[in-house]
Amino acid sequence: MPAIRAASKRKPPPEGFSDIEEDLLVFSNKMKDAQNTPTDNIPKHQAQWPIFQISHQRSRYIYELYYKTEAISKTLYDWLLKNGYADAMLIAKWKKSGYEQLCCLRCVQTKETNFNSTCICRVPKADVKEGHEIQCISCGCRGCATGD
């Protein structure tokens, strides 16, 4: 008979979590709604766009709380990243020059594209021919180049 594992002791959230808990709950509810939305009438690649956008908004919210407004502590920020409230890899890209407006990590991965380049949404709008609309296939972004 296998050994019974003891209940894991989860650390309580750090001080200041209660201040942003309501906002995170709103993002959580939006995410549940997006996941439960029927996807019968839309193309397969578009079904995940709302999930990517909500995840981006939640990560941007936490990023701005810590780096822009300095409203949360380092311990709370680290706890939020560790517990999956924000995408740590995406935030790491936002801190680099040229990636401040990046929509998702799939758009900068060159191995997933046909010509080993970045996504079309990374092209500045000034370089796109007039009358052409840009929209990323992986996340639905309409342009996240820093030069826009």
TrEMBL record:
Belongs to which family?
Belongs to the BUD31 (G10) family.
- Pfam name, any one: BUD31
Q: What UniProt keywords are attached to this protein's entry?
A: Nucleus
A single Gene Ontology CC term: spliceosomal complex
Q: Where in the cell is it found?
A: Nucleus
- Major location (coarse): nucleus
Protein's name in the database: Cell cycle control protein cwf14
One GO biological process from the UniProt record? mRNA splicing, via spliceosome
Sequence intervals crossing the membrane: none
Supply the InterPro entries for this chain: BUD31, BUD31/G10-rel_CS
